[in-house]
User: Fold this.
Amino acid sequence: MNPILEFPITDEILTSFALAIGPDLPGYRNHIYRVLNFYCALSGTVGPPGDAVQIAAAFHDLGIWTDDTLDYLPPSVGLALHYLETRHRTELGSEVSALILEHHKVRAYRSSHTATVEPFRQADLIDVSLGLVRFGLPRAFIKTVQSTFPDHGFHAMLIRLSARQFIRSPLRPLPMFRW
Assistant:
């Protein structure tokens, strides 16, 4: 299994938010590329995934930067829905919203768009856990994807933001998690 090296839809979206993301752009882009590669492997997708998954991937954490918050799921969905509206792709709104809103669900997702949401949720967890959680993916594949798309400080940034969130709201340290 070789990693997919290009996701043009994702790159187009990220380019339009490059100023907002700033110096975290290489780390966020590589996080997305790792997630999309893990998604394809988990879902059995050959080649790049469908538009809804690529669009959701680009927006799934974007509210971190646009709204300066760790409670970023609602703003990320809002940005994605605006994007879909301006491109006359509103038919993808339900799926893109579910992909973003449920990607930090603690338990398995079993509702609308399960076929895409659940492997996307798993793929993000594989990356956030640095491959400690694998959902059956071979370690060698995870390591290949990680070396192809290096971290560039993404996980360190998440730790910094989580610490800041804990200080600001100790009773709500990880607001993005859903039960």
User: Anything to note?
Assistant: The chain has one domain: 8-168.
